[in-house]
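Form 7-S
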Amino acid sequence: IGAAKLVVVVAIFLLTFYVISQVFEIKMDANLGHIFARSALDAAVRSTKPPRYKCGISKACPEKHFAFKMASGAANVVGPKICVEDNVLMSGVKNNVGRGINVALVNGKTGEPLDTKFFDMWGGDVAPFIEYLKPIHDGTIVLMATYDDGATKLNEEARKLIAELGSTSITNLGFRDNWVFCGGKGIKTKSPFEQHIKNNKDTNKYEGWPEVVEMEGCIPQKQD
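Output:
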């Protein structure tokens, strides 16, 4: 009888061990399956993550075009930002922006930055701005963005020089308007790259200033 009991006990133990091992293997397989599924899901998420384009614009530019993105200043607190070909030319972080009209010059053939400057159109003088605009070479890309106030000291001569770069809004730019513009010296048509928001106390986002204007696009490379 004792031997029979021992056989039964051993049989039960082996059966229990077998069942437990099967359950754990199944669970292990399930966990491995879960891990593989997660890996596949992560890979799928990575592959569907939208690609980043130059300057953070929404779509890639075609060949022989330069990507750009720019924003006007926010009230008198945050300065404007100008980016061309993934190169931030002007920004508050770079500490090279200021009240008035901020200007960046870019080589129209290579996309290389040439110069950046800002001109105070509230407390400054328009004469240095005019003298800066006159000698710009043909084929130069000119990007402009206002900060705080970009219009008070503008005169007819300055507005005419900017209009010759392709601007249509410069004639109407007023006190504390927000404006961004991308044109070129020697351009034969009006530039499609311009945004302008009037300072209007009924619609202003900030007290005394309209909302920020932003703009992005692809500038055609100058051909010989």
